[in-house]
Amino acid sequence: MKTSPAQKQTRILVQAAAAVCEDKKGLNTRILALDAADSGLSDFFLVTSATNERQAVAIADEIELQLKHNFGAFPNSVEGRRNGEWILLDYVDFVIHVFLAEKRAFYDIERLRKSARPLTPAEFDAELTTALSEKTRAVRSKAVKAKARAGKTAPNKSLRRTARSAKAKTAVKKAAVGAKPARKKKPARRTRKS
Known about the structure:
Blueprint: H1 5-23, E1 27-33, E2 44-50, H2 53-71, E3 77-79, E4 86-90, E5 94-100, H3 101-107, H4 109-112, E6 117-119, H5 121-153, H6 157-178
Parallel strand pairs: 2-5
Antiparallel strand pairs: 1-2, 1-6, 3-4, 4-5
Helix pairs in contact: 1-2, 1-5
């Protein structure tokens, strides 16, 4: 699964918005990964439910505040805040829907997007973590292969240093063995002054 930096940023923003939904006690939070061929709108829909209008507005306000404060992301448009029954935050690459429970059942967005892959926030996190670990493994294996190739052509720097120091120690020992031991000087006699 190859993702561009913009797609990674979108996933991080969706993840942050889903975390806000969980913190504000949003019900049945789902992330719909929209099919690229089927959807020209955006990459993801984040859908959550609230028990009353005040909670719906609170969830939408907190999502907007957190994304603006932490990531500098502003919604392209916000609709339905006044009624609080269905609040839509459009961030272009992803759209957030905050419904009242009965309105969500009536409009049934998940059914309208049959080609979308529904994910819970935990599944979305796991998918992102798996993709990141695969990329990390690939980078590490490239580094190991590069080290192996470098090791075949020239010795490692630390090995060269060790070899040099061993040669120097051997040279010092040989010089010490071949040279005559230095004589000890006798201490000078002190004379008494009377």
